[in-house]
Amino acid sequence: MSRTRPATMADVARLAGVSTATVSRVLSGTRAVDPAMAERVTSAAGRLDYRINLLGRGLRRTSTATVGLVLPDLRNPFFSALGQHLARAFAGSEVDLLLFSADDSLATEARGVRSFLGRQVDALVLIPVHEERSAEAVALAASSVRTVQLDRRVPGTQASYVGVSNRDGIALVHDHLVAAADLVSHPVTYVGATPDSSSAHERLDAVRRWFGQEVDCLLGDFSAAWGREAAARLLSSGARTGTLICAADVIAAGAVAHLLAAGHRVPEDFRVTGFDGVGAEELTHPSLTTVRQPVEAMAAAIRDLVVSEGDASARWFEPTLVVGGTSPG
Amino acid sequence: MSRTRPATMADVARLAGVSTATVSRVLSGTRAVDPAMAERVTSAAGRLDYRINLLGRGLRRTSTATVGLVLPDLRNPFFSALGQHLARAFAGSEVDLLLFSADDSLATEARGVRSFLGRQVDALVLIPVHEERSAEAVALAASSVRTVQLDRRVPGTQASYVGVSNRDGIALVHDHLVAAADLVSHPVTYVGATPDSSSAHERLDAVRRWFGQEVDCLLGDFSAAWGREAAARLLSSGARTGTLICAADVIAAGAVAHLLAAGHRVPEDFRVTGFDGVGAEELTHPSLTTVRQPVEAMAAAIRDLVVSEGDASARWFEPTLVVGGTSPG
DNA sequence: AAGAAGTCGGTAATCGTTTGCCGAGAGGAC
DNA sequence: GTCCTCTCGGCAAACGATTACCGACTTCTT
């Protein structure tokens, strides 16, 4: 495993008997070069196993053909689905997408932003960790490069935003349940996340809007463990029937698992709905009724925003309802 | 959103009335500097909102304090769990961990490796897409920087390896089932993945070793959809009881969902086990019996390997059995 | 035939940072 | 007082690529 000094353009130029300018032009196709000479250069580059140093290129050019994505947590399947779709959206372009996980920490998120900025990325995609406390990181990003917030946003920043209409998503759930079920014998409980992120915030507001201000709310985080605990609390408060509207599919899956384990029936005794629809809803039986976010279209929108020259903008996508086995109908 | 030219060290030096050498030494702490002067420099840097250009630094220094991770697919929860644990393991160090998703494509994987090499990363962590066809990418990586393969490996390369003992993992399942169940009335079927990756390969070999060469095998990919399909095939072949040993928790979850949907009981009629144990096993009811990989320890080992100076090495971690509700006992 | 226009290779400056080396000054030993 | 040893700031040369500019040459125009 001995590693020799990598070949540089100067080495290639020497071997091919030309100047580095010519090598650069051949390899990056910047300007026409005599075919015979070009052939000498490519063969020399191949012989020396030359690979370009992107640091040198990036330093000289102003751009790096790189976009950074900072996300809060890879274990949340919705975020990893977004990451995957975004990666695919960029795989067809000249631009490299690099990911950085903030590990749900504001400090690590800030570090990720600074790291990408230091690397002179052309644009930054951010899923902010916190609705207020990520403001500094988002502002720093937006003041330096084209920045797009994804899924979650920090109000009052200059950065663009791409996300789903949470109000419409909850409305889909509401209409579905009102059409198919009796919400008196199955009283509604919202199992959400504390409104630290704009999506948690907006989903909570939307639930209150469509189901009434007095709707019962249990707030935790976006995890299956919280779904289980919320279901446990509900049962220990005496409920034997009900409707659980969950802020994410992982929460819903946890809740369903606990309800079934406690001997209750889904959807007969308890109806449960999720949110996101990126695949986790199909892991369970019954499969989850959920609100599907059009992640592929969202990823494409991000890709387009990132390469475009326009001003900051915001775009809300329309979710759709996927009816599974955890709700009647 | 007007963006001005970022401040450089020369700007800071001018404002502080010192040379760029002094600025560099103050900001990177390379050498002692007179406290009064240091104070002038830091205040000037703050005033100008100076942020270091890592391209310049990386070009001059030989190292970049960066490690790249190329993984096949973020939607596989095991890979995103590995990514997350690795990110956490590096969050405490000076080194930045950057991720790149190969989108299950050999070409994209190669692109990721080349991209990271061009960025002069200090080390590369690879989860190879394919046991044979990723050989070129792994060899390229290993010939340029310290390289560690994770979870999957390409035989015959110079790169280190960190993974779990698949043979021992399947042995745990075997011993558990033999102790707790009647494998005659519940014949064994292995629901695995085509042996394109070393982990799929090794798990298949291990199943044949512990359960016999003639064990029934259904091979697909690491997805819930495949788990469902495999269960459907098994049922349509007439099976009404059985034991399904699955190569991953997502496969197992899909299989269980289909079996339950078809009206069968788990674990009474069908016993099902998974592999990985990174959280997906708790989304279902019954919760999955699975083989847990010690991902946190594995991530720590990767971190240590990456900073160490030693030769290439291989390390197999020992998995543990997590007994859930899909198997007797 | 002379000038204009186009093609294409090379020279050297440049991107932003780090660091080897020099030298000035301080402090200590004798 | 001399010499030796430290400390610490600055000069300038890298690191590896790109590209503005120059100039030699070819081709076209009139």
Write the topology of this structure.
The structure is a homodimer of 329-residue chains.
Chain A: H1 9-16, H2 20-28, H3 35-48, H4 54-60, E1 66-71, H5 77-91, E2 96-101, H6 106-118, E3 123-126, H7 135-144, E4 146-150, E5 160-164, H8 166-180, E6 188-193, H9 198-211, E7 216-220, H10 224-236, E8 242-246, H11 249-261, E9 270-273, E10 290-292, H12 295-307, E11 314-317, E12 320-322
Parallel strand pairs in A: 1-2, 1-3, 3-4, 4-5, 5-11, 6-7, 6-8, 8-9
Antiparallel strand pairs in A: 10-12
The structure holds a DNA duplex (30 and 30 nucleotides).
Give keywords.
3 domains, DNA-binding, 434 Repressor (Amino-terminal Domain), Rossmann fold, four-stranded parallel β-sheet, 12 strands, six-stranded parallel β-sheet, homodimer, alpha/beta, elongated
CATH class of the largest domain in chain A: Alpha Beta
- Taken from the alpha-carbon principal axes, the silhouette of chain A is elongated
Poorly predicted parts of chain A: none
How many runs of DSSP E, i.e. beta strands of chain A?
A: 12
In DSSP terms, counting alpha (H) and pi (I) runs of 4 or more, how many helices of chain A?
Answer: 12
Give the termini separation of chain A. 63 Å
In CATH, the homologous superfamily of the largest domain in chain A goes by the name Response regulator
Considering DSSP H and I runs of 4 or more, what fraction of the residues of chain A is helical? 40-55%
CATH topology of the largest domain in chain A: Rossmann fold
How would a textbook summarize the main sheet of chain A? Answer: 6 strands, parallel
* Largest interface, Cβ cutoff 8 Å: A-B, 68 and 68 residues
Order of helices and strands of chain A: HHHHEHEHEHEEHEHEHEHEEHEE
Spatially, the strands of the biggest sheet of chain A line up as: 2-1-3-4-5-11
Summed up, the domain count of chain A is 3
